[in-house]
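User: Before I run my own analysis I want an independent prediction to cross-check against. Here's the chain; please return only the structure tokens and, at the end, one sentence I can use as a sanity check.
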Amino acid sequence: MFPIGLSIASSVCAVPAVVMLATFRRARVTLRPLNEPIVLPATQMVRLVRRECARIDRNGLTCALAVFNLPSGRSRRANAEIALAAMRERARLTDVVGWLDDATLCAFLTDSTLEGAKAFADSVRDALKERIPSLTASIHNYDGKWAAIAGSPHAPEPVPALAMSA
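Assistant: Structure tokens:
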């Protein structure tokens, strides 16, 4: 008699728990799609890059930074939105898109090869060549110190906000 009573009691208690669990799962809210990278403001972006550089110094890895300089003018904000959309479409889940300063966007490419970083920058520039023809880009590599690898003749070397890297 005791095993039957325990079985009935456990099934009676288990049903509300399952219903309550299903209710909580349904109420879960996703803040943004997983494949849509956020855009960090300059202070957070520089802090993230410095932290990752310190990690690279410890572990002996490399990273790349694709830097895009927005052309000056009254449409800089509109150009920034267009460029950010193109960067976010091409960024991997591990990449971080953000600002370095008021006129400079960047994508921190974790564990990226130079070919991958160049492909990312070229892809963004190709997508924007008609809408923002004067967008300049450069690629920087970090393996203990920052080095400019490729870019337009007007690109900054080294990245001013990161000149005193980790």
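Sanity check: Residues 2-26 form the longest helix (25 residues).
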